[in-house]
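Lay summary

Proteins are chains of building blocks that fold into shapes. Our project writes down both the chain and a compact code for its shape. Here are two examples, one after the other.
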Amino acid sequence: MKKIFVVAVLTTLAIGTFATTDKDVHAEILKFESHIDHNGNYNYVYETSNSITAEEKGTGGKFAKGGYAYYSPEGELIQMAYEVDENGFHPKSEILPTPPPIPAAILRSLEYIRTHPQKDDH
């Protein structure tokens, strides 16, 4: 759970370093809810007056699912959703870079290799 909390805090701090305006300096917390039960299940949600929102729910140290949103200095809404599990942190957002498509020639080559396995000389 400590790792999840650290990720959430670092994300919030990172958001704050990118866009600091007068509105951001004087932002107020409009909503904050946080719950944890005896089984380690938790959830939190918050919203600020400068339009930063975040929420997360999970089981301490095992799983988490959440997201956050804020407006960039250019006025663009930035949204991020994520899941955390035994395989790591899995973010989903339109702002994340994506790899270019695999060229058709490479796809044909891979298909040829798959359908023509190499023969053993032994």
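And here is the second example, written the same way.
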Amino acid sequence: MNNDVFGDLIAEAALCAFSKLTCKSGKPSIRSNGVQEWTVMASVVAIMDNETIEPLTIATGVKVMPNRVRAFSQGFIVHDMHAEILALRLFNFFLLHECAKESSIWVEQGGSNAKYRLKPSVKLALFVTEPPCGDCSMEYLASSLDSNEPWTEEAELNDQFHRGRNNFDRVGVVRTKPGRPDSLISYSKSCSDKLCLKQLTGICNTTTALIFDPIYLDYLVVNGVKTKNFERCFINRLSGIEPIVHHLKLLHYTNDGYEYHKAQDKEPSPVSLLYIVPSQFVQVLNNGIKNGAAAAKNKTPKAGTESIICNQSFITAFNKLISTPSTIASPTYLQLKRSQVNRERLKNIGKTTLQNWKPTDDDDFSII
């Protein structure tokens, strides 16, 4: 199948599923002052051997929490609410619930060491309505803004830390969110960098990686990204370690029916939508917890306010799935993460290769 046609079919399926969703609280709205909101939408889309295309998860979002929130998060707050990252986190939640079924269209046992695996007949694409922030989208961003001048704050101009649009002329480097110079520092890596790293580790998270063989994205479906920029970001930056890289393939699409694109006269939506398409499950996030939930400033959120895709919720869902929760021997979340030796090894290789990967502060909590 022609790649452009293939990209169009994936985009059409994701946009159609999003348009049919009637939940208005999670979609951009017109504010009381008449200003229209915008947001980015992303979808993890399954492609079957018989060419059936089915969106599995859909998410929207453009926000990121400041790094200082990690001091009191205790695993209850979702820090990175960019659409791509939310769609992938929601896919991991989807995986756990597929494992709990007697039979699943998407997953099966039979992986290495009796693990689960994504069925071999399934490939995955990530559809996004805007180029991923960071290195992949620098040229696109420069051409789409009224002003493409770089940030010039003295504190930001150094070779160790590229934040948003500082050192705008530098490409092939790790960048952090958010993309505004007046935002509090997050240290959360750009979507370009996170997706680049997932070509090594796969898209499973700390919990699903315990019971699944690695699962990789096969395609990135997006408009506005030139092939040379895609190859620099996702291929050339990892050129020295090809044997352990599952490279993404770029697909473009032409039929864009998305109505919430960014524009100079629009404001970013403060909320994020989570939508699991097969089960019709919907949740809306605001500031990293469920929209409408009360949260005390600089305090750990109360039980019941957390999202289904926060780290605490993943541990809870995982413990419900396995027969003996005590099989998680690690006493804390970070120790559990670091106990996955091969996954940590691949992450470290990727971070070293990409260079200047400044870590976020820890967000740890007890799990036993």
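What can we say about the second shape? Residues 3-354 form one domain.
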